[in-house]
Specification:
- The protein is of the alpha/beta class.
- The chain has two domains: 2-47 and 342-378, Urease, subunit C, domain 1, CATH 2.30.40.10; 49-333, Metal-dependent hydrolases (TIM Barrel).
- Helix content is 29%, strand content 21%.
- It is built from ten helices and 17 strands.
- The strands form three sheets. Strands 1, 2, 3, 4, 5, 14, 15, 16 and 17 form a nine-stranded mixed β-sheet that branches. A five-stranded parallel β-sheet has the order 9-10-11-12-13. It has a three-stranded parallel β-sheet with strand order 6-7-8.
- Helix 2 links the parallel strand 7 and strand 8.
- It is globular and about 65 Å long.
- The chain starts with a strand and ends with a strand.
């Protein structure tokens, strides 16, 4: 199929260029063409499909209590399939699922791969490693010793996950868990990262507390999730420049999970704390990717297009920088730079067409005109 007369942003550069996109499973050419089978999109804009680097497909955002989430596997599977279909209709063509308890997200991932289901490309972590009774312990990844952690990782490997997730600190979603608290010592984390490398897995680290952020960076994880800088004085108030510099030096990506719910901070004093933290991190070279933690209470799995303007405003990113964080930069961070995230020859045909220019106004992302994932058009009606 030939998509003609488009204003194209390739996901990498600063500028938009005029041309056509040819599709046959992969994007195999950009430019002008005389192919006969075509659709005309004069005046429209095409960008790479969006990537949400942190979701939880198993979580129901209507349910606030994690212990009351759906447990019946057939009902949960049906709900997850429905969410996957909605995700891709929103223009999100790749997601990284960072935790669940039953490995059902892997089943959904494989159904999508086999083209038995319409949905985004799924990168899955399976059961996160956590401390005994720690954050999200109910997902089955508890470990007190490195031997137990290795058993958890081996179980994920047997299930064919794509990466390892570890809860370095506590979290808000789990009763009796505190975001400020580190759940593991540095030596433990370093060994987990080392063992994961033996299995050829990157490690995503859930980190709210500043102490945990430092330990995760020192251990050499691949991505730091949340990076909330929580300390005794509260959320965001324990920023540490030495840790930020270490994150940048080790080229660790920060996935700050800024979702549309953060819009409430724009009218509070807390927004200045957030902006200052992002500013300081950028000054030392920390790199960010777009993520939402979709599935947590009131954050739906289609949230990313709604979150992008908020992310831009709070993080102090230009529209182009924000879009890169959800396309080519995200692909690099999660190991898919040669697969998706940009419109160029050889990449998977994941792109979205809009009536207006999203580089001029990120709110345009809320209304896609056409979504193409792996070369297949998705009905968004």
């Amino acid at each position: 199929m030939l998509y003609k007369n488009l204003n194209i942003w390739d996901g990498v550069g600063e500028d938009i260029f005029f041309g056509d996109i040819f599709v046959d499973k992969d994007i195999f050419g950009i430019g002008r063409s005389k192919q006969s089978l075509s659709k005309d999109f004069s005046g429209c804009f095409a960008i790479p499909g969006l990537i949400d680097s942190h979701i939880h497909l198993c979580l129901d955002p209507y349910e606030r209590n994690p212990l009351k989430q759906e447990v019946d596997e057939e009902k949960l599977k049906a709900a997850m399939i429905s969410r996957a279909e909605l995700i891709v209709k929103a223009g999100i063509t790749t997601v990284r699922d960072l935790g669940g308890g039953k490995h059902l997200e892997l089943l959904v991932r494989d159904l999508i791969k086999e083209k038995k289901l319409t949905g985004p490309r799924l990168i899955c972590a399976g059961q996160p490693i956590t401390s005994r009774g720690g954050h999200c312990h109910f997902w089955g990844g508890e470990a007190e010793s490195i031997d137990e952690a290795i058993k958890v990782m081996n179980r994920q490997a047997m299930a064919a996950v794509d990466l390892i997730k570890i809860m370095v600190t506590g979290g808000s979603m789990t009763p009796k868990s505190k975001p400020i608290d580190s759940q593991f010592e540095l030596d433990f984390l370093t060994k987990v990262v080392g063992e994961a490398k033996k299995l050829n897995y990157p490690v995503a680290a859930h980190c709210h507390g500043s102490d945990g952020i430092f330990k995760a960076a020192k251990a050499g994880v691949s991505t730091i999730e949340h990076c909330s800088w929580v300390g005794e004085s509260g959320w965001g108030r324990s920023f540490d420049m030495k840790t930020a510099t270490l994150i940048a030096k080790k080229q660790i990506w920060v996935s700050p999970t800024v979702n549309s719910g953060w819009k409430r901070y724009l009218e509070s004093n807390y927004v200045e704390i957030l902006r200052n933290n992002f500013k300081k991190m950028k000054e030392v070279g920390v790199r960010f990717i777009a993520s939402t933690d979709a599935g947590i209470p009131n954050i739906f799995h289609t949230d990313l297009p709604l979150a992008m303007p908020v992310f831009s405003e709070i993080a102090g990113l230009t529209n182009t920088e924000t879009l890169r964080a959800a396309t080519s930069d995200a692909a690099r961070a999660i190991g898919l730079s040669g697969v998706t995230g940009s419109i160029e020859s050889g990449r998977s045909a994941d792109f979205v067409i809009y009536d207006e220019n999203p580089l001029a106004d990120l709110n345009v992302l809320k209304v896609p005109k056409l979504v193409v994932v792996r070369g297949q058009e998705v009905s968004i009606d």
